[in-house]
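Attaching the record inline, Q. Sequence:
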Amino acid sequence: MLTRPGSRTLNASPVSQGTPRATATSPPATVTPTQVPSRRSTQPNLSSSDECTHDGVARIAERIDIKNIKSTVFTGAVPEGSYDSGAREWWEQFADQADDAQVLAGQLWNDKVNTATLSLFLSGSARRWLKQHRHDHPRATFAETGDALVAKFRPKLTNQEITARIYDEPKLPAETYQEFADRLLLMVGGLDGGTTNRANARHALGTFVRHAWPQRKDVIF
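Structure, as predicted:
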């Protein structure tokens, strides 16, 4: 250690041929705090698995683009003069529109966001059912929820009773052939498997052929 009058103490260490080198302690570096983005400005991650509570449905709807979903509101009620609430047809249409809305918006919604969006298009007993279903099955996928909705609000008739009604269903005087075919297919939707089961579709085809022109049977398929 070398000390000179009127100067500060220097630490010397042999570097080359005994020449001392002074070292000084550097001042502490200034640490800049990490910038943490505000939660309000953070864009939602639509592919995340964050919880979507019932209370947050409105906020979620503001973040995602659902303007291309034009579905009617499903209540689960059976229209007067009908035996079916139309749950299967409604669900298939809603699911298709939800898929298209994501494509058009350039978004990808996870199951929880899809189910939260579904709740916006339900009311009455259907809305109450969904609330209970989400409580009882918190891990249910969007597709599983749709299947459960159809099962819950399917006709109270057996497959045999529905098939018999399809067989006896007449064409209404004011109906076009296309409308008659659509109505028969709607009735088929009440059977297990719906219109995806070719055996079910044949029931509608047989009725159509009996009550309409045979050459128009292609309308069914």
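The two ends are 100 Å apart (CA to CA). Residues 209 and 215 are 8 Å apart (CA to CA).

More tomorrow.
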